[in-house]
Design goal:
CATH superfamily of the largest domain: Efflux pump adaptor protein, beta barrel domain
CATH class of the largest domain: Mainly Beta
Number of domains: 4
Number of strands: 22
Radius of gyration: 47 Å
Number of helices: 4
Low-confidence stretches: 31-42, 44-48, 389-394
Largest sheet: 6 strands, antiparallel, barrel
Shape: elongated
Structural class: alpha+beta
Length: 394
């Protein structure tokens, strides 16, 4: 009997069979892995053709306002603290807190009786001096005549004294007139009027209070027109001055979120120095503010229109991509493929970017979906939308 036909021989054959099976399985697994690697390394054009959904927009020329933006504070065009120029008891406050008053309206009345009495005294003193002047002038005229005749009824000394009295009374009458004017002025000061049309604040005194020249009665602010003080970086001085040299640049005041316009005005003044600590310059804008949307103390965003480009190219900022060679945009071609287009960008604001070069009217640009694109990739476009819209400089 052959030993290979025994139990040991059979066991050897079984082991070799299992080894052969393991080799076959391992080869199959490795072959599948290499197949997947090869598939991954296959160029996109050789893989199963698929399209990338993207949103596109059509480039069209448009008129664009280039602006510069800063933060500002609304301030009253004029502010006055109503302070009496004479002392006395307040007998009338004919205004309501928070109301709008017109220029010349009565705001405060102080008891005028003391000033009326002083005016009466000054007027009476002037009348007395004028009467004395008339009497002395008559005596002077009579004595001068007697002296000229050479009689002893009048002497030169008498005439000289009377002439001096006339001059003194004339001077006294001038002083009396000044006293009358001073008394009249104090009487006028007893009635305080609005220096301009404005809004009244909260009063600091009540009826019956005795006020002095140091008392603050109330504050009035002029809000039509109204001003906004704001700052811009010193790097913007040149472009703002250039705009101001061609006229009064338009200014828009927006709320703190920069979304809602509160008023439209014009640039009124550029400060004469730069704040070296902050590197900014202060400017002032004027707003008619007839709707009172701007209120003193408000914080606002301010945009100054520094120039207008009538036929500029502006695109949604999300369409602009950053690459190692600079900014670029994906362009969609008529054959449903995309390619990279290098561009030069200008001003950016409000989610839009001005393209200085690289695009022409009619180009279709990819706005969203760029992260899945490769040059030559097939795309599925949404309905092209025009890129019209306002773009401004930052």
């Amino acid at each position: 009997m052959n030993r290979k036909d025994g139990p040991a021989g059979r066991r050897g054959l079984i082991r070799r069979g299992w080894l052969l099976l393991l080799v076959v399985v391992a080869a199959s697994v490795l072959g599948l892995g290499w197949t997947r690697v090869d598939a991954d390394r296959t160029p996109p054009a050789q893989q199963a053709m698929s399209t990338v959904p993207v949103e596109t927009a059509v480039v069209e020329p448009q008129s664009i306002e280039i602006t510069r933006t800063g933060l500002g504070t609304v301030v009253a065009w004029n502010t006055a603290t109503i302070t009496p120029q004479v002392s006395g008891e307040v007998i009338d406050l004919p205004f309501h807190e928070g109301e709008t008053v017109q220029k010349g309206d009565v705001l405060v009345r102080i008891d005028p009786r003391r000033f009326q009495a002083m005016l009466g005294q000054a007027t009476a003193k002037q009348a007395q001096d004028e009467a004395n002047l008339v009497a002395i002038q008559k005596n002077l005229s009579r004595d001068q005549t007697l002296l000229n005749r050479g009689g002893f009824a009048a002497t030169q000394q008498m005439v000289d004294n009377e002439r001096a009295q006339v001059d003194a009374l004339k001077a006294a009458i001038v002083g009396d007139q000044a006293a009358i004017e001073s008394a009249q002025l104090n009487l006028d000061f007893a009635t305080i009027r609005a220096p301009f049309t404005g809004v009244m604040g909260l009063r600091n005194v009540d009826l019956g209070n005795v006020v002095t020249t140091a008392s603050s009665i109330v504050t009035i602010t002029q809000i039509e027109p109204i001003a906004v003080d704001f700052t811009l970086p010193q790097a913007d001085i040149g472009i703002v001055q250039a705009a101001a040299s061609e006229g009064s640049p338009q200014v828009v005041a927006l709320d703190q979120n920069g979304k809602n316009a509160l008023g439209h005005g014009t640039l009124d003044a550029i400060n004469n120095r730069v704040d070296s600590a902050s590197g900014t310059i202060k400017l002032k804008a004027r707003f008619d503010n007839t709707d009172h949307k701007l209120w003193p103390g408000d914080f606002v965003q301010v945009r100054v229109v520094v120039r207008i480009e009538p036929n500029a190219i502006a695109v949604p900022s999300q369409a602009v991509q950053d690459g190692p060679d600079g900014p670029y945009i994906w362009l969609a071609s008529s054959d449903k493929t995309v390619r990279v287009q290098a561009i030069e960008i200008g001003d950016i604001q409000d989610g839009r970017t001005v393209v200085a070069s690289g695009l022409t009217a009619g180009d279709r640009i990819v706005v969203t979906g760029q992260y899945r694109l490769t040059p030559g990739a097939l795309v599925t476009e949404t309905s092209p939308q025009p890129t019209n819209g306002q773009a401004s400089g930052s």
